[in-house]
Amino acid sequence: MGIVDRITSMTPRRREHLEPRSQVQALRDEFDHWLQGVSQDWGRMTSRAGNWRWLPATDVHENDHELIVTAEVPGLEREDLKLTLAPEGLVIRGERHEEKEDRRRGVLMSELHYGSFVRTVPLPSGLDLDAAEARVEKGVLTVRFPKKAGATKGRRIPIKEAS
Amino acid sequence: MATTTTMSRPSTRTRDKNDAIAVERATRTVVPRVDIYETDTAYVLLADMPGVASGGLEVTADRDELTIRGHVQPTMNTPDYQEFELTDYHRIFVLTEDLDTASITATLKDGVLRVEVPKHPRLQPKKISVRAE
Fold first, then answer.
1. CA triplet A148, A61, A138: central angle to 5 degrees?
2. Paired strand residues for B57
3. Which domains does chain B have, with CATH numbers?
4. From the list B28, B35, B84, which residue is nearest A72 (CB)?
5. Contact assessment for residue B60 and residue B53, using Cβ atoms and an 8 Å cutoff
């Protein structure tokens, strides 16, 4: 009784109209997609002393003038998040509070993660850390780091000839 | 000559098929995670849909099916490091007969969709007041 999940992700797609090569590609795409989902779920959970914690999924984008870190933080507001810069990178701390519902009688599905998390995103050198800007909107955290002008692009290390 | 004809035809069709694959890729959606719980008067569904604005949200109840869809405006190019992708969300649920589908309400806050489906009034618990004689 109530609301029941209709399995949408496993619905087989018609692919007999595709040539064999495309069929293989389509199947591969589907499998990749599924595997990605599974590995993401594992990757986002960490265990410390048997307590399972969740980690928000994070993306890093880079262009010529900035580095952008985005994280999925649905249900979190500005006050629920704390950002710090540590030697090892950007540290994102947050806590998702479960909706208080005294009238709650029974649970039919429970897929969302609640509680606190700490996630560190390593940052490359050459960023202007003082000019970092962060905002949280529609459940997505975006942190922008402008690149320093004239930052070193890396140095070549010569390999010595064997003597 | 007959061979040439049969050779050329599949190649045109191949192009159509590749287009079809491209379309299928472009319309790929993710299944949002949900919590569903029951209260005395309703069923509440919470769905994580980060990146969706209220204008891009579509909640429809058609007979016994509840469909939630969220459209995301893509903003950035392919990331250098990726764990998630802001793509459209799509998930379908089946509503049982004890629900009042005409009075469904939906709200979106901080990327979380909240859908409340009231139970049919005749199935809701009623408090019966006792009159003193």
1. 115
2. B70
3. 31-74+84-123 (2.60.40.790)
4. B84
5. no
Both tokens assigned to A114? 């609640």
Q: Is B107 left (phi over 0), alpha (psi -120 to 50) or beta?
A: beta
Between CA B122 and CA B118 the distance in angstroms is 11
- Taking the complete model, does pTM exceed 0.90, yes or no? no
Tokens of B14: 């191949």
Identify which of A2, A60, A103 has the shortest CB distance to residue B80.
A60
Per-residue pLDDT of A53-99, as tens digits, reads 788 989 999 988 999 999 999 999 999 999 999 999 999 999 999 87
State the pLDDT at residue A50. 55
**Contact across the interface for A22 and B18, Cβ inside 8 Å:** yes
Q: Tell which residue, A61, A123, A139, has the closest CA to residue A90.
A: A123
